[in-house]
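Support case: user asked for a sample of complex input and structure output to validate their parser. Sending the pair below.
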Amino acid sequence: MMTNPAGRITQGQFSYLPDLSDAEISLQIEYGLNKGYAWSVEYTDDPHPRNTYWEMFGIPMFDLKDAAGVMLELQNCRKTFPNRYIRLMAFDSTRGVESIAMNFIVNRPQHEPGFGLVRQETHGRSIRYTVHSYATDRPEAERGS
Amino acid sequence: MAAPLYTIPGAAQPVATPAAQPTAATAAAAGTTLEAGGLRTVNQVLAQSQAGAVMDELERDLIGLAPIKARIRDIAALLVIDKLRMNLGLQAQAPSLHMCFTGNPGTGKTTVAMRMAEILHRLGYVRKGHLVAVTRDDLVGQYIGHTAPKTKEVVKKAMGGVLFIDEAYYLYRPENERDYGQEAIEILLQVMESQRDDLVVILAGYKDRMNTFFRSNPGMSSRIAHHLDFPDYAASDLLRIGDRMLEQHNYRFGPGARAAFEQYIQHRIVQQNFANARSVRNALDRARLRQASRLFADKDREFTPEDLTTIAESDIRASRVFQIAAAQNPD
């Protein structure tokens, strides 16, 4: 079973497209800001699909008017963690929605090892299957940034 | 500053800024035609952008302030010429537009800053044209490590618009060498240099204190291209400002009241704590109070719109300023 055939994980918006350029990212941010979303930057080294909550890079940015502010924070994050997954998330605070409205990856590690299938033998002959991300094979402190 | 961009279901519709919508459209239109090229004269550029309208409006709406208007005209001209240069493939580096407004209280520093954001937006220099007005409290934190995120957050909010720092000299407290203000200044300096295309920083404050501030922060002074000094208003300007304020509030001077107000201004200018346009506004507010209690005393009278909008001479003459003036010059 191939879980990561292209060597690129596909999560969030635009993940089947080539990486967005900075200008394209700015346009997406601009679109979100016009909708009144609050952007935030998050990073992780474990792209497991169930790893919902990535590390926050600074607090969400409310009341912004222009994409330059988010881009500034994104560049800071890229400088700090060049070899991790970084995503931008747009929070829609409209009453009744109050959740993430946009979410796309803007930075990937050089090498994306993907996932392995783990088989666990349980009662009798039954087997449980789960997905394991190779990126977490080494202890967290040794994985680098 | 904190007005939500989204609509909350059930809440009143947020009022769109009247000027922002059409200008954004024309700015975008200007951008596309410029890329296509073809603009060769100043008039063609003026027709595309709204620089001409902006300058006319400025002339009409702001009374006095001749040096300020001249400088804004210069900036507008430069931006227009830059567009022409760009069309011919010449290099057009965006000028640095960080400004410093100095002047006595009530000379219109804040008012002009508010207009400046809109003007620069309509001239196509800043992308969004909003104004973020802050003071020391919004930039400087209360403990170690608090200042940098706080300042950066404000800067991020101001991106695409104008960051207006009122009474900027408070940022630097020479008497306390461990004051966190210095940290905020350093971040601002960095942003003013590296994000020049993204935001315009305007510092404002009283002249002497700003000079002290710049002497101790030479880096700040050199990063600011435009030092604008707001002159005090002449008495005739103040009278016209008064007229304008009354008009805005749907009031007018009754017979003799305008002459009385002119005298009032002449007395007030030489008295203590005179704050130019702000004093005029306060004087008119008090005149409105007196007018209200004068009308209030007439319990059974039916008022015409005339009565309700007229400031009478007695409303102005009752001011304490006249008594003080009389006491000082008994003749």
